[in-house]
Amino acid sequence: MKKHTLEGVITCNTDTFYGVGTNPVIAVFTAHELHDEDKVCKFIDFRDDGYDVRAHVGLVEGDSAKDKRQHLLMCGSGTPRLRRSSAWNPR
Description:
- This protein is of the alpha+beta class.
- It has one domain.
- It has two helices and five strands, in the order E-E-E-E-E-H-H.
- It has a three-stranded mixed sheet, with helices on one face.
- The longest helix has 12 residues, at 65-76.
- The protein starts with a strand and ends in a 7-residue tail after the last helix.
C-alpha cells in the first residue's frame, strides 16, 4: 500500500467458479496514489448475489440477481473509482 490506494473489496459468491473450490474476491485499487492511513475502505459481502447452481448447467441468474446487482452498485456509489470500475458494470 506504499504506492497504491485500496478503495474496497467485494466478497463474491463461492460458486462463481463452480467446482473449483475457491473464494473469489474483487479488490479495487487506485494506482499510483498513496493510501492515506485515515482512508476508509469498503468491504462488501456479495456472496448472496442471486445466482444459483443448476445441475448440468452451472451458475444461472436467479430472479433476484438484477435487484441485488443494483443494490451492489448503490453500495459502491459513494466511492467514485469503484463506480467507474468495470467490476460495477451490470450485465
